[in-house]
Amino acid sequence: MPRVSLIYNYEKFPRIGKKSSGSAFKWVDREKFDTVLACYEKLRGQGYTILASSLNDTSKNFYDFDLTLKTAIVIGNEHRGISAEAEQLADSTVYIPMFGMIQSLNVSVSAAIMLYEAARQRIVKQMFERSDLSNQELEALIQEWSKR
Hints:
Layout: E1 3-7, E2 29-33, H1 36-45, E3 49-53, E4 60-61, E5 71-74, H2 84-89, E6 92-95, H3 107-124, H4 135-146
Parallel strand pairs: 1-2, 3-5, 3-6, 4-6
């Protein structure tokens, strides 16, 4: 299920507008965390591999990962990037290959590129042609979303 895990350990958690992105707000679940460790522990407990976006000497090309597996992608804000803790606790750090003198992207552009690559890999494996949900789970989800 689409979900965004938000860690706000420096700034106050912002009010997220319900009109953002053509009302996508109601289709994506959000969960808030006060610490990186709490977020990562929950994700790992659910079987996710954690990839954190960072330009460092050990970062690997993002396109080299199999994003058809359960993967959490960590992207920092545009001012500070990810924290040292988020980088150190991740399973791997990754970068989006770029050319030229500029080596950074707007956070929304980075997210779009990474999510599109995950979708592209899943399209190639025909993962969208079948559901991992049972008919009962799918019906329950439709009922929940209809109430939003």
